Amino acid sequence: MTQATGALPGQGTGAAYAPPGGRRSPRVMAKSLLALTKPRIIVELLITTVPTMLLARHGLPAVELIAVTLLGGTLAAGSANTINCYIDRDIDAVMRRTSRRPLVAKGKQAVIKPTEALVFGILLGAASTVLLGTLVNWLAAALADAAILFYIFVYTLGLKRRTASNIVIGGAAGCFPVLVGWAAVTGRVSLPAVVLFAVIFFWTPPHFWALAMKFRNDYAAANVPMLPVVAPATEVTSKILGYSYVMVAATLALVPYAGWLYGACALGLGAWFLVEAHALRARVTAGDAPAPMRLFHRSIAYLTLLFTAVAVTALLPWGRW
Q: How many domains does the chain fold into?
């Protein structure tokens, strides 16, 4: 595994978390532990869970079921993200984008010791398993556990520092919430859930590669072989465009189950996304400033609107075949 610094993954300096005067404020500790879970990423994951549950029911499931599933999913995602921060703190310290994370930041936020972070992450995962297993079903719990293990062992430890295909394969970890949501409602994983999994799977590379284009120098300094680090921008944007088309095709594969109204929304949103993907490639080809964050922000809006369409059309008494 390539290292960005002389420290092994999991090593850090005591100064990174030593509080002034040796005292640690419970409030600041709680804030730092919350930051390790990457709440903004969790929100993005949960955006896909509720619409999936509505589609599985073709209506509104019990509010209690939705609440418990969301809480269990939050704990599972928080577990994976916290352990990811524990493992990656050596490269987080090098990258400007991540240098303020609690395990590597200097100042009041840096009050969490690495071992404490690891224990916290494990406890979150255990709590998710117990909650989903006992109050939802054990298939949902097993899928949430699979997401945690995949993110930690396949992506963070196995792929991230070794191959430019890291986010293509490792991004599958972010697709599991739709499987969890579907299993929570139906007790099984059906074809529409697999299609939704595929939508997020093919959405992830364009979304993340756009971000990595912006922070290419960060990843290069940390010796992380993200595609924009190891390939020319023309190749990156060509792959972004290719994955974008496959993603839109995957959204349309859900039409037989979700209905024609959803299909119309998916087609319009897909065209909107592809316009910016083409524009990014055109700017790079012309030698202009690529402005990849335009596609990055559009990708977030796109996924949110697409799953909003899934939710709304699942609740409507019309719009299906």
A: 2
